[in-house]
Amino acid sequence: MRIYLTVIDETPEAEIALRFSARRAVKTGGGVEILALVEQQEFIAFGGVQATIEDEARRHAEGLVAKAAGTLLEESGLRPSITVRQGDGPKIIREMLAANREVAALVLGAAADGPPGPLVTHFAGQAGTLPVPLMIIPGNLDREAIDRLS
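Now predict its structure.
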């Protein structure tokens, strides 16, 4: 099965990338894997405080993924795979691509204005080293354009 690995956060472009992935998956008989990244927290000398901060960040990411998965299921009928990982985003994504040969593409959303985000910047500069195509979905696309292009 063709899997579209889509990284999400709270930005509008992430929602656009997820919609594109869902539409492609439906049309190709594939699936979607939603990845939410939790940033590595700065070290705090008090372990309990550190653990609380990390737990809150993980819960926030899990809530974001649950919402995205619900929207995806409602709009396309697809039940996505969900992954929440903490650490270095590019490293995690490369590990996931290496571990799952069914991933057909890495799908990222680009901001409608301003500079691209750190993942788009990183992977666009290294697209030739990826084992799958990199799809960067413009953040200024409306639903009709996404549906037409996917």
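The chain has a mean pLDDT of 85.
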